[in-house]
## 1
Amino acid sequence: MNFRSDNESPAATEIMAAIARANEGFVHSYGADPITARLDELFGDLFETEVTVLPVISGTAANALSLSLICPPYGMVFCHQHAHVNNDECSAPEFFTGGAKLRPLQGPGAKFTANALREAIEMTGAHGDHEPLPAAVSVTQSTELGAVYRPEEIAAITEVARAAGMATHMDGARFGNAIATLGCAPADVTWRAGIDVLSFGATKNGALAAEAVVLFRPQAEAGRRRSRAGHLLSKMRFLSAQLEAYIADGLWLRLAAAANRQAARLADGLEGVPGATVQRPVEANEVFAILPPAVIDGLEGRGIHLHRWPGVANQVRLVCAYCTRDEDVDAVISAARDAAQT
Amino acid sequence: MNFRSDNESPAATEIMAAIARANEGFVHSYGADPITARLDELFGDLFETEVTVLPVISGTAANALSLSLICPPYGMVFCHQHAHVNNDECSAPEFFTGGAKLRPLQGPGAKFTANALREAIEMTGAHGDHEPLPAAVSVTQSTELGAVYRPEEIAAITEVARAAGMATHMDGARFGNAIATLGCAPADVTWRAGIDVLSFGATKNGALAAEAVVLFRPQAEAGRRRSRAGHLLSKMRFLSAQLEAYIADGLWLRLAAAANRQAARLADGLEGVPGATVQRPVEANEVFAILPPAVIDGLEGRGIHLHRWPGVANQVRLVCAYCTRDEDVDAVISAARDAAQT
Amino acid sequence: MNFRSDNESPAATEIMAAIARANEGFVHSYGADPITARLDELFGDLFETEVTVLPVISGTAANALSLSLICPPYGMVFCHQHAHVNNDECSAPEFFTGGAKLRPLQGPGAKFTANALREAIEMTGAHGDHEPLPAAVSVTQSTELGAVYRPEEIAAITEVARAAGMATHMDGARFGNAIATLGCAPADVTWRAGIDVLSFGATKNGALAAEAVVLFRPQAEAGRRRSRAGHLLSKMRFLSAQLEAYIADGLWLRLAAAANRQAARLADGLEGVPGATVQRPVEANEVFAILPPAVIDGLEGRGIHLHRWPGVANQVRLVCAYCTRDEDVDAVISAARDAAQT
Amino acid sequence: MNFRSDNESPAATEIMAAIARANEGFVHSYGADPITARLDELFGDLFETEVTVLPVISGTAANALSLSLICPPYGMVFCHQHAHVNNDECSAPEFFTGGAKLRPLQGPGAKFTANALREAIEMTGAHGDHEPLPAAVSVTQSTELGAVYRPEEIAAITEVARAAGMATHMDGARFGNAIATLGCAPADVTWRAGIDVLSFGATKNGALAAEAVVLFRPQAEAGRRRSRAGHLLSKMRFLSAQLEAYIADGLWLRLAAAANRQAARLADGLEGVPGATVQRPVEANEVFAILPPAVIDGLEGRGIHLHRWPGVANQVRLVCAYCTRDEDVDAVISAARDAAQT
């Protein structure tokens, strides 16, 4: 049983079927195929506004490409200290932007506030040309610690950013999980809340390998930047087909809601385990908990994969995927109880 | 009917089946899955030597990543003027290397000789620190104009490179087509001929999106370079499965041979068309020809997709794919004859 | 006696005096000093328009910084094959732009024409996102082979550039020598002829180490780009003082005219040497000539430093500096005659 | 009177004289002159070991070039949060390295300990290819807050670095001030303590614009990296002459000692000012103090330039230069007392 990462889950049946359907004869390459041609409109419908969509195959590619569009080489990107762009992309943002500086912010649940951003911005400016230009802000939705920003929180952050002349990016590697929790329109927490560019993730939530850079404002030569990063697929149809199926008929939200539901069940169950502390809020599909060492060992001993979180003693992360079943969660809770009693 | 590019072909049945088979339950992500774990050995068997394999999803990624491993930012890469790395990757090599300089060489069929390389190297060195360091050579096999290097030609080139302290890369986007023509062992035209790094292509020849960077010599931190370029797939199994199926049981060579055979048939047929000149050698799966404008228009009017080659009047490229059928080629020849007579 | 390069000449008395005068007590650093404060206006007067001036200490810095302002990482810079930016800066333009592509053009005297540029531009565009964006043009004035563009030649080039949406740069490492020859206003061959950014050189013509990036159109964050390249001097006054003295009272033109005059004398004299061919035009301070090997050896044997030009048999370059004297030139001519007769 | 920065001081008489002496006739350019030729040996004598010296014109250039030699694009540089490389160089290290990540450490006086470094290193490694490779450590001597590392502190830091396979850099923009305080051999706190590369500063301490990158271990192609950054001066003799004069006869230490002495006097005097708190240790030429607002205003009102330190209320920095006089310091103390009593 695997709760280590939603990245370890298989691709959803609907996605696999869409890939198979796309495999019909010859079509033009590099995005000149009919499926790709539909994406701007389909995502435009989803987001209730005109958008440009650039499909890519990884979240790191989506984030780094997005940031390179809104932050110059001499710029500074504000993000949370625990942001994926700051910690888990081997300096891809620095690479794609040509050397921009990431400026980490603090805050519980890997969320930062508009005030924290404002204070950080106010600390810049005294050094003139000796310091990078505050240029961009990146928020993660849902966050790397499983929390979710409310639309008004995003709006407050982007208002501070806009006032300082900065552009805004949302890392939505788990965007579906956030929307499933919020119950709002995707627009409400993105462009209506002031977001300029969104990394819209699908891979963790059922796709094979598909993410979309969604531009709510036109950005110069995004296509050339994608191309020179090696991210313009020749057989683009297979990538676009995943994205099309993912947003068709609300599949993405159904899958995300399923994962969230299991995470909530898991959190509830773990709270009843002696010695366990679930680190609320569990607002998406990730559960962070402090567990007694014996429980951690016991779970792993029973073949349950989890993520021993680096840097915090006895902290683990358990992630529920779109395909995590009731019995899987039940089994974890039961195993944790057993281990706690031994 | 599509002869415009092998990139426009569908994925082969065997590849699709392998992807479907890989979609079983949870496995570890980012290359820690069992399929990826087998690749080094499988490719080692294929190449009769120890290798390290890094799967990526595009030829540009494979080439740019490869060059970044063997050429420093202050280095110079020698390649043919018509090389894909020089013309068709929107400066991806410059991006990945951090600003290296590509030094184009001349030669018919997009091939250059060891002598041409030697002369170009001899023209460097007079400017000291004012000029980039000759660091790497890149050859394309088969070339962008459909020609194939013989093992001894590659060996002569790499000997000149080695003598000048340079490392060597082969862009094998159509490597299968070259080997199908040469009939030699893959080793003979790569590491045994002095190649250090190979971009081993599969996408044009039946894969969905899969290329392998094959390292014949260890290169420091290739994995981190792949990661920061956004090319480390979370669900790597789907990429590795394509590569595994592609080289299993000689599928790659069967598919390439089929494409080559149709290209030879097509070339033969077009030579009989009044006013047509096939630009030999047709050694792989690409046919370059000068056709009367009426023939070009006639083919397109009959729904046959081809590539009007930029820069040369009345020159077209017709590419045969692994799945191009006898009747497709026959139809082109027949249509060309018709159009020539009108 | 040294005719190898004007870079080997000492600093002019007037420049040394200006540096000494600037060394009075404490002044604000990083360009907040009174001398630097005057530069925009002084250069504005010289160029008869509003300009922004960024002093730097090398021609490579001036060129690479300039190009980074007008060419994005995914852009293409058109320049002559023999351009300093293409050949003698160890890929500094690629480094500063973040990987832009230099596209070399041909033409005698290291000059290219508006037509050559137009044809090169027309060869782009067929590859879509696969090729870099034509973004900038760089011309050298006077050229690396000692020729000078007429204002109307520059205007024709920049018109082609502008029509293609490109910005324009002039490498004026020997700008003074060009103006001394043309006798026109500096404006006539720069912004009035459509140039956006000028590398205004002083080092080769009497300064200790001083070049100015002169912006005829505002460019975003040029200061931050200079800073992160390590080219923002703390004691900027010493750099600005050189530039101020250099353009005050026409010093720069007097020095350049003196150098040009000696080059003309040298060319005339060498033409009378048996077996020698001076490669006209000698329009600035550089003389290129094919000399009999015995003459080259003879000159060097008599302690006369010259530059054996790489790549062309028996070709030498002799450069006259602002401080080259009549007797120096006479001595070269006399030595060449002697050597030719032995 | 200026206590704002040693960067605002004039050049020392001895340095100006050396520049004037260097201005004799023609010499070879780009470092092929006799003065530059002597530098390796002169610095070798000073440091009691074989070294390679690359003169550059700014501290940012020295630091960024140094880091690019020892940290790859996918690497991580550990440094203090207040390090100049982290805060005051507009991402020059990121630019020169091609996107490396700076990892800030904490510690009083802008010093960090070997333990702090060890703990930070231990926090890496859990993310595999997703995080940059710990590659380099940079310490500043004396620090940005005026403190000085003891040789054994440096040795402990470099021992931790070495054990983790990392290389080490010292930012010695105020290296003379540190050595004047320590009284040890320059070797003791650099290569004997495990430092690989030193930015040896002269500009703040009497030079016009001169810093030396001193390599204690050979580094590949440092010259080409300098060249492509635009930092290879054509008239290098003027830069090398400053460095030669600076280290000849102990000038650098005499100048630094004079500055340190005045800083000590200034600190003593300010401690007697009501409401003032000097932030010890004052180990070099910088005094950090918390002063009553009225005192800060009073000093500025009396024409005394100081640096209101950003980020800390009522904190100022006063820097003594090599040429700060007894009466200047006395005047500050007296003015502060006056202002405190009003």
## 2
Amino acid sequence: MKNSLPRASLRELGVHLGQLQPGPLNAITDVAGVRVGHATLVLGDGPLQPGHGPVRTGVTVILPHADNLYQEKVHAAVHTINGFGKVAGFEQVRELGTIEAPIALTNTLNVGLVLDALVQHAIHQNPCLGIDAHSGSVNIVVGETNDSYLNDIQGRHVRAEHVWQALVSAQGGPVRQGAVGAGAGTLCYGWKGGIGSASRLLAPELGGFCLGALVQSNFGSRRELVIGGVQIGRQLRHLQEPPPTSPGSIMIVLATDAPLSSRQLQRLCVRAAAGLARTGGALRHGSGDFVVAFSTAERLPHLPASLTASRAVLLDEEPVMNGLFLAVIESVEEAVLNSLTCAETVIGRDDHLGQALPLEPLLELLRLDVLK
Amino acid sequence: MKNSLPRASLRELGVHLGQLQPGPLNAITDVAGVRVGHATLVLGDGPLQPGHGPVRTGVTVILPHADNLYQEKVHAAVHTINGFGKVAGFEQVRELGTIEAPIALTNTLNVGLVLDALVQHAIHQNPCLGIDAHSGSVNIVVGETNDSYLNDIQGRHVRAEHVWQALVSAQGGPVRQGAVGAGAGTLCYGWKGGIGSASRLLAPELGGFCLGALVQSNFGSRRELVIGGVQIGRQLRHLQEPPPTSPGSIMIVLATDAPLSSRQLQRLCVRAAAGLARTGGALRHGSGDFVVAFSTAERLPHLPASLTASRAVLLDEEPVMNGLFLAVIESVEEAVLNSLTCAETVIGRDDHLGQALPLEPLLELLRLDVLK
Amino acid sequence: MKNSLPRASLRELGVHLGQLQPGPLNAITDVAGVRVGHATLVLGDGPLQPGHGPVRTGVTVILPHADNLYQEKVHAAVHTINGFGKVAGFEQVRELGTIEAPIALTNTLNVGLVLDALVQHAIHQNPCLGIDAHSGSVNIVVGETNDSYLNDIQGRHVRAEHVWQALVSAQGGPVRQGAVGAGAGTLCYGWKGGIGSASRLLAPELGGFCLGALVQSNFGSRRELVIGGVQIGRQLRHLQEPPPTSPGSIMIVLATDAPLSSRQLQRLCVRAAAGLARTGGALRHGSGDFVVAFSTAERLPHLPASLTASRAVLLDEEPVMNGLFLAVIESVEEAVLNSLTCAETVIGRDDHLGQALPLEPLLELLRLDVLK
Amino acid sequence: MKNSLPRASLRELGVHLGQLQPGPLNAITDVAGVRVGHATLVLGDGPLQPGHGPVRTGVTVILPHADNLYQEKVHAAVHTINGFGKVAGFEQVRELGTIEAPIALTNTLNVGLVLDALVQHAIHQNPCLGIDAHSGSVNIVVGETNDSYLNDIQGRHVRAEHVWQALVSAQGGPVRQGAVGAGAGTLCYGWKGGIGSASRLLAPELGGFCLGALVQSNFGSRRELVIGGVQIGRQLRHLQEPPPTSPGSIMIVLATDAPLSSRQLQRLCVRAAAGLARTGGALRHGSGDFVVAFSTAERLPHLPASLTASRAVLLDEEPVMNGLFLAVIESVEEAVLNSLTCAETVIGRDDHLGQALPLEPLLELLRLDVLK
């Protein structure tokens, strides 16, 4: 089977899902100020030598803004769909409703080292950290999925320098998707998955807000994949031997410029599960399915100058909340699918195959339905 | 438009969704011992006279078993998908992990009276209640959705005698679905909804467990409805003027004979949202979306004779947990759809129309896709 | 044993606990606008005739302000310390972070009827309720404790008219405490408990905010009571035969004029448990221990005129948050103790005795310690 | 002021708090099989050179049993009292209700490196980890408090070898308390705090179960400390200049041999806050207050051989649950106090003083009250 079509997002391939319009980039970076950076580690081939390779992993960082996040925090929320996973940093977000450092995604066994690297980064930016009584600590959110089918995960090959590299390369503009960064070695619905992103805009009368999603996809078995209601997975599953179903997981990051409180952002997080479900996701036992959401609408100074502040807040009304909820559902759905259509085939440890979702037969199937 | 086909479940209409097999009744009553009873209130016609009618409402009760539930409790869990609703009894289920009374569904403003009636019922069954120090109280779970488009909801027409009637009529066997009981006046995806049920069986090597769902459906706008991946809502929405989108809600009750702990039952509850999403559900702001789950595998005596007991428990393993999760997703999806295909047209207050989902065009559309 | 001292709050008796100053009334009504109303039901004597009396119960309502709460909601939060109880209305407060009706406290088996009465009240104030699509429902928070040792709880003697009576009588100013309203029949630490209230003021440099607590106390065994660190319970327990330990419960309502979000109010709720613990509370298995908190600082219109609003918010800073937290702890501690020192002896069903905490020996014991 | 009395636990000093009897060691190791290990890092003196010292920190590990925890997991639960902290591993415990690796405590900025070391340890014990599809990942629980007043916390001086050292040294028997392990550099109520432990036994008729607590104490200001109801903090606070109040935190680990489910263990966790409150704890804004509980009664195989298992479970009954709850409250209270009475004075970075709680004046004050 050949894949002559270049890898591209579903929409670039001509498939338009959902009711809402995407932003210009159809990516989380449509939310002004948000930056994404990757460090991709691809080293070695052949049989697994635990601790030594082959390496198919990486780290992806999402920055709510380009300035010092510790000094200028953003409102945030977290949500656990299925907690079979190793995220760090959730308790403090639940309590305080803020993000104060770059969000990082990596592989399951690398959470510790990536967390430590981001602590180091925060110290570098804030030399008072842990010294000044008013800046005692920093909370780091790290998410993960398990890339062990392709990657020597025991090696914990993502080190501090890769985190720097991801941070330094972080930028607005188009997001590199597929087998990059934290998505270098992940599988989704039995095909090569990885990083995917998408966005939606609300109508001007609903505030014209932008909502974007970025996922690290690593879940599902081949027969489950659904695109636009079409049972793609079932129809394509015989093209090739699928990899054994592994536990899998998904990390979902949501960004918006709507002025939401942490309570409202938490409500957004809950809706991400419906986006997953639209792609056929069955919320499996072994899947660590986590959501992080933040709003860029306001920056909260680390050391406020006053007791109270005046804040613009979105009111909990049907049309606008439903608009945001639908934006979450559609963005997450499309981000998952983009992680598939963007990812190139990756051959990993022990010659394990992470086969790219074949685009020609996909489009042929969709043409009969969604594209008609 | 005429509906010459008799109202029936989706599967009776020849549409088979999902991978798993349903139980013999394809209803929550496939879980041995579970009983369902309805009292349906239909009175009067014409303009709304608040407090006086017309009445299109009712109550539905679900009994985990036919004996005294207070004396023989069952393991249970609850979950809130979206909390814009008025369920009662959730806190104690969260703390103790048990159900000790019939579960009742009714309309939004009737929760108080139905709760009181079930307290009265519990006293009747257990004369010591509130007298004996060891039987101080009883926890009642009542769920609701808002039937105010068709019903004089201000009237709170469901009284104690209707609850008795539902309890007395509760039985195993086929479940009456559609515009009955608590579903008498509800709308779903802009069509007449109501009570729906479905079930799934696990393979013998996964324990052969049975899982059933019963829903009181009252959510969604017409354009959102999806059946088997087909955008039914969009294609049928011009057949007729839809009702104005109302806040809506859904109550979901899950039953299983698998020996699950309250923690495991809670995990089942979380998966119900994916079943909703498969039908197009967008988890709207104004929707009270709640799930209650129980296991019939063990009965817990109100006054135990010993400190500890020996209990058979299901272990948290991939295949069986995933089987149960998929059973939840498929049962909830099909129960929602059955509430639509079973419901007859209901004309309510102010001649508001709850139009039955037209079956012929539905099947024609599905024939092109799911049924091919 | 004679009680020649008139019943009074602990502070009126000369015992000053805590570091912070109370407001002028030392009651929840120190928070401007808050009103409290009681209806107390005392009927009959002698042997229990289930359903007929004797009656020692009632209802207490707390109004965040005197206007239409449905049209002008307030920010709120709820918290469950131990969920063995039957509160209603918690799910919607968790989701939306608002209170939109009077908060009511009553006995365990009366939650349904009180809830229904408050629905009726909301309809009376808002005739559109359940008719207008934008006003489909109302969320009612009802709390309860179990007064069955003194009261014919099976009778559910609190009816709609008693709720009206409590609402009509609700006022600012001093709060009647002890064996009144929902506290008519409750026991606390083996003595007669009931309604108690207290308040604390923050220093002007911390915003000068006011925080008040009101409790319905009904928990604990005699030997556990601690006042100002003194083991009062142990030392007074032999004065008289204590009642058998009953399951017990406590409802705690917190009010503040600080401009807190629902997230911050939830943090306040969590601290209430420390106030309980200071009085010796052991958070028993059978106790339904619940907290509701609201802020009067902002009113949220039911139908907002715009998408966003500007809001003054308190920033999460050490001194002011710690001040509020301490105010919660001290107010709850003192409110519990006031419910004891204010309550008169009540003789209930079957001549069960709810003995007033004897003040002379109490003060004598405290004089050696706290008062020295 | 001289401290001629040797540092010792409160009970060894003759002060007996609470109603229940401690186990023979009055430590978490009274729960059979539980092991505790410390690595204490004390290096350098004088001015802080960030990243280089002086070092006053460490790591403490708690092992539910001495065998391979990944292969033989234990039932567990977690609870967040105040989430201003950086614990790792909580989400998976919430979902699955198990602990599968040693629990580690360390300083706030060292969570990443300690987590990574424990991943490495799990790989060492289980070479299949991350390779075999059935052993994809391991969940590590790491807690922390902030020792930056005495320690060069930026240096993250706890490395993998210190974790090995703590693991290797872990043993049953008496627990070293005070300024050891993760408690080397922490402060509590303005005095030197650190590791503390205590235990309680239930009466034989309540199953004779044992419950133990271990804390890493690092919270509170001097004036708040209460022992046995006596305001020790206020009376001793002028002995010496207290350190500036820092944010502080506490980690609490509970162990029991009672056969509890994760739901029941979670209920135990909630009661820990009442133990804190008895010592004067005010649950401050900046405090990360977390609880982890496990039961040694059953071991759950990583790869079960069957779908279901038979399990002895404790039934939720008043006397035994209340006994366990009281055991939690008393053990946590006494563990916090033992961390104070056991800790020696520590002089840290910049000659910051962590003054040992002076025992003579303490006992003199208590003699007037508790000891009389």
